Amino acid sequence: MERLQSFVGGRWVDGSSAPVVLTNPATEEPVAEVRNGFDAPGALAHARAAGEALRKLTFAERGALLQEMSRVLHADRERLLDISTAINGATRGDSKFDVDGATGTLAAYATLGKELGDRRFLADGDAIQLGRAPRFVGQHVRMPLRGVAVHINAFNFPAWGTFEKAAVAILAGMPILTKPATATALLAWHMAKVVLDAKILPEGALSFVAGSLGDLFDHLGPQDVVAFTGSADTATRLRATPSILSPSVRFNAEADSLNAAVLGPDVEEGSDLWHWFVRAVTTDVTQKTGQKCTAIRRVIVPDARADAFVEALSDTLGRVVVGNPVDASVTMGPVATRQQLAAVRDGIGLLREEATLVAGGADPVDGVGAPAGKGYFVRPTLLRTTMERSSRVHEHEVFGPSVTVVSSPDDADAMASLVARAQGSLVSTVASDDLEWLGAFLEGACAWNGRVLVSSTKVADQVTPPGMVLPTLVHGGPGRAGGGVELGGTRGLELYTQRTAIQGDRALLGRILGTERA
Ligand code: NAP
């Protein structure tokens, strides 16, 4: 059994609590243990001190660090995929989604660093004339904050979650202290070890906490940042911590989301776009066993198409093979923990109060290739209801392979209003070729979503999967989804930098800031 340690204050340390045991969700065998406890003030001080070395580097130099991180992790890809599949219960495809997502995002931010070049901070817009003569101006700049970026991640993406946050903070010029969710920390720990062993980053720029953060929040200061991903409940509790509120520690939350997929009324059954829609929903519901913040939970379809769509989706979900991903025939693994399994079963029970079960359900199931009665398996579950009856489906996130089809009148406003009933989502997907209908739908839906994917016949063969977060586009949504923003190219740097308006002599400022060469 592996023993996970934390890397803080420049060395690997063990905690002193009783061991917390991590299990393989496909077999329930113990795979690792971690003991909580570390010197939080010391860890923060050590990490903050590393900021100076990062701030001295240009964007291009920081980008080169990210490129090297991506390279060493990619060089170890096969071992990391094996760990993810054999120990974390993710299929090989799901493991690639996570691990390649991590190295891909690091590489994308490395490229951005190269593009931003030999600057160390960003000018924000052009100089603005403030006086009668053009000489006296205001210039906005974004400088890296001088604290530490504390990253807290959810259990579902131990690789991508850790390194998509790391990429942005390091490019901005901030050291990081990263904490994966304990249940799946093993993969993140191996990846952090690869990067730390390669000694790529300046001393102290990457700290890693296995297990609990302890009293770390009590020691945060006004230049620190917390970027949190997890449930809305934890986000609400953490952002209301007095030590976050009082020094105004920046707190970014990526939380729950009841993402919708909407079928436009013009999409004919059997058309290419129809098939794309069925495929996209199927993939999204089953990928990572539905444990994706961006997974489609609600499918809103016109009343007239509901029967045909439910039949098509039931057919594709029925072909999914649930089991231990080390068995080559398995296409969907277990959920991550016993608690998750219980929560998914309870959630399906809750949705059944207003929806009809079409396929799957909460009953226990043995996984292919897993010991009988062992493993946290659940079948892909399809429920259906109507707009009038739907209520919990817009409120309760079942964090597993469960999807509910909601039939609705087909006008764009009604469908956008149903999307909005989730009170803020990370992403919604819509399939249609009808310009007028789409325009009305987007006007109604955009304010409730961080991202909207529009698939139409001419691009259906090239659209990225709805659940795939891209480094070039923002990730995060309003309301229930946490209200945060991550990624989106340079937009992601905003979290880790201070926007300051500097007033003064245009020529003087231009030369100091590098915005204007005299
Ligand atoms: P969670 O229970 O809220 O935990 C999230 C993280 O918070 C974990 O690392 C957890 O650590 C940590 N944590 C819990 N209490 C804490 C405290 N008092 N102080 C500091 N850290 C604390 O969520 P989860 O079960 O891991 O993840 C599932 C949820 O995440 C789902 O609701 C999903 O929608 C959401 N999610 C959102 C996104 C997004 O980008 N919007 C992405 C992925 C997942 P321990 O594991 O050690 O308890």
Polypeptide structure, described:
The chain has 518 residues and is α/β, with parallel strands linked by helices. The chain has 15 helices and 22 strands. The protein folds into 2 domains: 40-256 and 484-513, Aldehyde Dehydrogenase, Chain A, domain 1; 259-471, Aldehyde Dehydrogenase, Chain A, domain 2. The strands form 6 sheets. It has a 7-stranded mixed sheet, sandwiched between helices. 52% of the residues are buried. Residues 152-157, 179, 181-183, 212-213, 229-231, 234, 238, 254-257, 293, 397, 399, 426, 481-482 line the site of NADP nicotinamide-adenine-dinucleotide phosphate.
Counted beta strands: 22
Main sheet record: 7 strands, mixed
Strand order of the largest sheet: 15-16-17-14-13-18-19
Radius of gyration: 24 Å
User: Which ligands accompany this protein?
Assistant: NADP nicotinamide-adenine-dinucleotide phosphate
The CATH homologous superfamily name of the largest domain equals Aldehyde Dehydrogenase, Chain A, domain 1
The rounded distance between the terminal residues' Cα atoms is 63 Å
What would you call the shape? globular
Percent helix, as a range, is 25-40%
User: Please, how many helices?
Assistant: 15
What is the highest CATH level, the class of the largest domain?
Alpha Beta
CATH fold name of the largest domain: Aldehyde Dehydrogenase, Chain A, domain 1
SS-based structural class? Answer: alpha/beta
| Number of domain modules | 2
Question: pLDDT average, as an integer?
Answer: 96
Strand content: 15-25%
